[in-house]
Amino acid sequence: MAVDEVDSRGENTAMFLESLSELEMQRLRLWMKDSLGFWVVVEPGVGHIQVKIADEKHPPRNIADLGFGYSQILPIVLQLWKNRSVSGASSPQKRVLLAMEQPELHLHPDYQAKIADLMVSCTSTQSSSLRVILETHSDHLINRFGSLINEGTLSADDIQILVVNEDDEKNSEVNVVEFSDDGTLGDNWPLGFFTPEDA
């Protein structure tokens, strides 16, 4: 298994982290601390590598003891960081596409919003050739993208939402929903997508 990138299921996360130089690890920790409020610590164990999470309030704790959210978010964060670094610094002509399926699963709503912030910060620089395709059912992610548009951090032209519905004949129908310049969703946003229609 390669260690120069994180595989699609995050199975080589510990090996990827162990392969980073001390300078790369320092940069990653600082970036994670600034972006997420926590950072990763790697410690060699007997026959394995221990991945730990630390923050301002807690010493490093084994990721296996912290619930599924951290182990799910870490490979996503690492892929964004690595591809942000690669596409922005050394090879602006290299196109990178990351596809993510429901990164919000098992995450606190605050971290769902922080993932949206990370995606935008990693894709919105002029030198970045990183693009993200995101499959989600998270109102927290969608609402955060709208807030970032409203704040001027993200342009409505830089994001596209495709909603897949089933038509009367049970065929898939794809509709484009756009954000307005103030971050609100267009009129064709499907009623009841996040809340029941009769609510």
Polypeptide structure, described:
The structure is a single chain. The N and C termini lie far apart (49 Å). The mean pLDDT is 86. Helix 3 runs parallel beside helix 4. The strands form 3 sheets. This protein has a 3-stranded antiparallel β-sheet with strand order 1-2-3. Strands 4-5 form a two-stranded parallel ribbon. A two-stranded antiparallel ribbon has the order 6-7. By secondary structure, the chain is an alpha+beta fold. The protein has one domain: Rossmann fold, CATH 3.40.50. Helix content is 37%, strand content 20%. Residues 62-142 form the Endonuclease GajA/Old nuclease/RecF-like AAA domain. This is AAA family ATPase. It comes from Xanthomonas campestris pv. papavericola. InterPro entries: AAA_GajA/Old/RecF-like, Bact_Antivir_Def_Nuclease, P-loop_NTPase.
Give the helices and strands, then pairings.
Elements: H1 13-19, H2 22-36, E1 38-44, E2 49-55, E3 61-62, H3 68-90, E4 96-101, H4 109-123, E5 130-135, H5 139-151, E6 161-166, E7 172-177
Helix pairs in contact: 3-4, 4-5
Domain Endonuclease GajA/Old nuclease/RecF-like AAA: 62-142
Organism: Xanthomonas campestris pv. papavericola
Protein name: AAA family ATPase
Q: How far apart lie the N and C ends?
A: 49 Å
CATH topology: Rossmann fold
Helix content: 25-40%
Largest sheet: 3 strands, antiparallel
Mean pLDDT: 86
The CATH top-level class label: Alpha Beta
The H-level CATH homologous superfamily, spelled out, is P-loop containing nucleotide triphosphate hydrolases
User: How much beta, percentage-wise?
Assistant: 15-25%
Rg over CA atoms: 19 Å
By CATH, the architecture is named 3-Layer(aba) Sandwich
